[in-house]
Amino acid sequence: MQNIHDIARQIVAREGGFVEDPDDPGGATNRGVTLATLRRLGFDTTGDGKVQVEDVRALTRAQAEAIFIDHYFRRPGLANLPEPLQPGVFDMYVNAGSTAVRLLQKLLSDMGFPCAADGIVGPQTIRQAQAAIEAAPAHLADAYAIARRNWYYALADSRPASRKYARRKDGGKGGWITRAEEFMAPRYRLTEAQHRERTAAWA
């Protein structure tokens, strides 16, 4: 099992550098950390007493990793989940916040381990996740990654401005889809033909 610092380093590498995409609800982002996140944390990178776009631009790799570990892994209680689930849920939490936990809770309920989809890693979610991992130790992480991929596709279905994150200009898999598929066994990844069929209605 990778340690949390290794996972955080991979997340930062996956997120990439500074971008300010008008179609991204997160706004200005660097290494996966948004301006809204820095403001919420009062993280004044430049030390000028204000938290603004320049603070996002100046964020270092080490600072981003520390933010993710402290505020996207430890604070939400992801360390209390079974170890096989931690990398995928952590990665999605960075990408989608508490939706990552709600997705897990819905998956657990669908598997027959009911828990409230409240986005909080509480005693019930921990208990049901442990029961599910004991029932399907080789499959739960894959099932979560598949549910995550499906969530991205569904989000792009309903929000045309976000389709470029799920499908490249050439029609291939976009970053959302390839990212989700990194956390599943290769046999569960869609072929290019399957991906194109799934996104054909987007025009």
What are the key terms here?
single chain; 203 residues; mainly alpha; two-stranded antiparallel sheet; 11 helices; 56% helix
Written description of the protein model:
This protein is mostly helical. Among the domains are: 1-75, no CATH class; 142-202, no CATH class. The chain has eleven helices and two strands, in the order αββαααααααααα. It has helices at residues 4-15, 35-41, 53-58, 61-74, 86-96, 99-110, 123-135, 140-158, 163-166, 175-181, 192-199; strands spanning 29-30, 33-34. A two-stranded antiparallel sheet has the order 1-2. Helix 1 crosses helix 4, helix 1 (4-15) packs parallel to helix 5 and helix 5 crosses helix 6. The radius of gyration is 17 Å and the shape is globular. The model has no long low-confidence stretch (mean pLDDT 94).
- The value of Rg in angstroms is 17 Å
Overall strand count:
2
Shape annotation: globular
Query: Main sheet: which strands, in order across?
Result: 1-2
Q: What order do the helices and strands follow?
A: HEEHHHHHHHHHH
Mean pLDDT: 94
Helix content: 55-70%
Can I get a quick summary?
With 203 residues, the protein is mainly alpha-helical. Helix content is 56%, strand content 2%. A two-stranded antiparallel sheet has the order 1-2.
Write the layout of secondary structure elements.
Layout: H1 4-15, E1 29-30, E2 33-34, H2 35-41, H3 53-58, H4 61-74, H5 86-96, H6 99-110, H7 123-135, H8 140-158, H9 163-166, H10 175-181, H11 192-199
Antiparallel strand pairs: 1-2
